[in-house]
Design brief:
mainly alpha, elongated, Helicase, Ruva Protein, domain 3, 121 residues, 6 helices, 30s ribosomal protein s13, domain 2, 2 domains, two-stranded antiparallel sheet
């Protein structure tokens, strides 16, 4: 198994798909990285030689991925919470942030339903 940015890349998948295991890299960025590194997108990750792997690593290092990206996202959320923006208050309360309904949905963010006494009549 090859390691790129501290992530084990699965050998049995095409390199185009295998790169998406890295946080911050999707299909389009994966294709762009492979085009810049001059690596065939249909090649399996296990069949890459060291030269190709090093070129891919160099291209991936140009982008914000893994720990740095996670840290930046968390800092952005904390900033929103500190300045009491609408999104920040939704994060604090554990409610959906992006305008979803909450009256009959949003169980992922709200958690288990809390029954209220004498609600049903």
């Amino acid at each position: 198994m090859a390691r790129i940015k501290g992530v084990d890349i699965p050998n049995n998948k095409r390199i185009e798909i295998a790169l998406t295991y890295i946080y911050g890299i999707g299909r389009s960025l994966s294709n762009k990285i492979l085009a810049d590194a001059k690596v065939d997108i249909n090649k399996k990750a296990g069949s890459l030689d060291n030269d190709e792997l090093s070129r891919i690593r160099d291209e991936v290092n140009k982008y914000l991925t893994e720990g740095d990206l996670r840290r930046e996202v968390n800092m952005n959320i904390k900033t929103k919470m500190e300045i009491n923006s609408y999104q920040g208050t939704r994060h604090k309360r554990g409610l959906p942030v992006r305008g979803q309904r909450t009256s009959r949905n949003a169980r992922t963010r709200k958690g288990k339903p809390k029954t209220i006494a004498n609600k049903k009549k």
